[in-house]
Amino acid sequence: MGTNPDEGVKTVVRRLTPADLERVIQLDAKVTGRRRDGYFEAKLKENMSRAGIQVSLAAETGPVFTGFLLAKVWYGEFGSTEPVAVLDTIGAHPDYRGRGVGTALFDQLRTNLRALGIQRIRTEVSWDAQALLSFFHHERFRPAPRICLEADVDDPVLVEREERRAMEAEEAGLS
Description:
There is one protein chain. By secondary structure, the protein is of the alpha+beta class. It has a single domain (2-148), classed as Gcn5-related N-acetyltransferase (GNAT) (Aminopeptidase). Helices cover 37% and strands 25% of the residues. It has 5 helices and 6 strands. Strands 1-2-3-4-5-6 form a 6-stranded mixed beta sheet, with helices on both faces. A hairpin with a 2-residue loop joins strand 3 and strand 4 (64-77). Helix 1 (21-32) crosses helix 2.
């Protein structure tokens, strides 16, 4: 539980439930400027279907839904055999930023993960999201000893290579 220093109102952190879906979507839209109904419907469904390891959380400050985080536990990923928590999304009401909502969510998440024997939390963040990077730094996140890679499926070099292979296969009578 965190305290809102401006009003002395406690921030209560609890388990995220399916009933929170619309409030999550609305809060995220307030932050991002667009509704992502499909994204959150899928994420909440995935989270709620994992019996016994639901680690996603909601925060309320008084009657106001002030934050949420969507996370999941993986028991081995990308060649690692160690269990890890993966943070998909975090959101804090803009009017409550800097008032301990995010910290209260992470304090409870860490408590829950310790009880499950999980020692690490991973997430990804855009390099230019300075406010979010600063928050993660405050929460003791550091660069991981892994490199996240991505490739553009429409990369012209790759498209040309695929087209060349298709033509070669056609000429050889393989298609």
